[in-house]
Amino acid sequence: MSQRPYIVGNWKMNGSRVMLAEARAIDRAAQRYPDVEIALAPPFPFLGALREAVSAIGVGGQDCHTAAKGAHTGDVSATMLADIGADFVILGHSERRRDHGEDDALVRAKAEAALAAGLSVIICVGETLEERDSGKAEAVVSRQVEGSVPASESAAVAAGRLALAYEPVWAIGTGRVAAVEDVIAMHAAVQTRLAAIFGEDADKVRILYGGSVNGENAAGLLAAAGVGGALVGGASLTADAFLPIVAAASKPED
What we know:
The chain has helices at 20-29, 44-53, 78-84, 94-100, 104-116, 129-133, 137-148, 153-157, 180-198, 218-222, 239-249; strands at 6-10, 37-41, 58-61, 88-91, 120-125, 162-166, 206-210, 229-232. It is an alpha/beta fold. It has an eight-stranded parallel beta barrel with strand order 1-2-3-4-5-6-7-8, surrounded by six helices. Helix 5 packs across helix 7 and helix 7 (137-148) packs parallel to helix 9 (180-198). The chain is globular.
């Protein structure tokens, strides 16, 4: 089943109320690209305001807790994200894994909580430069997929609300981009693991590429076999930088 390309902007710990103007500009432009699904994930303080500011694009969080509520100071639950109007949540980003010690089991538990709350989920996976140079890249990423993706029957039913983002750690924010042939090989490896988990439902799961995606390299990456979209970092902070990536994903009819 063919799905629209999914272009998601992850603002990380960047943003201000002034930047809502950029989100509005992206939202207005979205009508020119009906064949592309577009979304932004701002920091938590701006999520509600961004939800009110846009109508054509999706809005999501950058993390959630495994519990629906409780004594977890500083955390945000999936049910809270859903209540404020979020459509999805990004989980297991390499910066969360590195800075907060998140492992695959925790990412899976968060994903299960998010799906139960009615959110869609983007699970991030990716190898370090040392792991790639040692020839372990596909094994590492396959292990992350197996450990992070919910494998219950209910999750299989919700496969249409799940996306994977392959983000080689060494390419995030560095300006380095994986070679297209390496992206194709890794996305094929991820698809193989998803098929083992979901069977035929695996085709519902889009696999995004992330790692210094910008308007200049987006067309080549998005045209690669098995690439269902992009998770974009720094280039999503302004409409001028983000919209060329959206345009690269669009395939208007002749």
